[in-house]
Amino acid sequence: QAVADVILIDTPGGDTALSRAAHGRADQIVTPMNDSFVDFDLLGEVDPVTLELKKPSIYSESVWEARKHRAITEGRQVTIDWIVVTNRLAVAEARNRRRLEERMMKLAKRVGFRVGPGLRDRVIYRELFPFGLTVADLSNDIRPVSVSLAHVAARQEMRNLMQAMGLDDAAGGSLAPLDAAAA
Q: In this structure, are residues 78 and 67 in contact, taking their beta carbons and an 8 Å threshold?
């Protein structure tokens, strides 16, 4: 019998049978979103003039349904830990991002998710993709591209995300500090 500490299911962005089944069995849901109101619209609806939060949207409702279904079928209060993380953050700070973060915090309190640490839009992700690698695969021995301080920062962002998810032990040291000076 195979045993795993963590099973990751990457579901499509739409409402599918696979997505509903995965959400219904999840102990933790991680929802990545770009820092834009276009992506936020799937979590919450805002007034187009004031940007005030009006109500939860489609995806928030589907997570609520998954939580409710688990509570009914398992006969107890089941907590699905839901973390929303911003993805592909631009380096420049923007007024739009601050507005979005304010709405995310309000919605988080209302529908019950945590806002996790985000990941910046970094070239290293695109550089490693053709090799089938991630920043977790980089080591002092494995370096298909030159490693810079930006790559070290990307690994730290990933480490922060894994800690927020409670997976720092599951990483098995794969995100150990990288010696950028030896690059």
A: yes
CATH 3.40.50.300 in the chain, residue ranges: 1-121
Tokens of 176: 């150990």
CATH 3.40.50.300 corresponds to the domain 1-121: yes
Q: Which two tokens stand for residue 138?
A: 């980089």
Q: pLDDT tens per residue, the chain (183 residues)?
A: 677 777 788 877 778 888 888 888 888 999 999 888 888 999 999 998 998 999 999 899 999 998 888 888 887 666 789 999 988 877 666 788 888 889 999 999 999 999 999 888 888 888 888 888 888 887 777 777 777 787 788 888 988 998 999 887 755 555 555 555 444
pTM passes above 0.85 = no
Task: Tell me whether strands 44-46 and 53-56 are parallel, antiparallel or unpaired.
Answer: antiparallel
Spell out the residues 6+ positions from residue 63 whose beta carbon is closer than 8 angstroms to its own. 23, 29, 80, 82, 111, 113
Q: Give the C-alpha separation, 13 to 173, whole Å.
A: 31
Token pair 């098995």: residue: 172
